[in-house]
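Form 7-S
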Amino acid sequence: MNIKEDIRPVSYIKAHAAEILAQVNESHRPVYVTQNGEAKAVLLDTESYEKMKKALGLLKLLAQGEQDIVNGKVLSQEDFFSAMDRDYNNTRP
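Output:
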C-alpha cells in the first residue's frame, strides 16, 4: 500500500479522472481528495461503498435493538412468534 497514491489534490483528480477511477476500482482503496491542502472528499469504488452502506445499516439496527433493551421493549421468544403467527394469519386472504 502506497499512501501517496491514496491522497490526491482535486486538480490532479480533474486531470487524471480515468486513471484514478481505475486505481480505485482495482485496489478497492479509497482516494482522499484534498483542496487547498485539506481533505475534502473520499472517492470509493461502488462495491466498497455498497458494503459500507450495508455495514452501517446493520450497525444502526444493532443500536436500535440495544436501545429497545435499555427501554424494556422486549418480548419472550414465545410471545414474539405468537404475535408473528397472529399477524401473518390476519394478513392472508
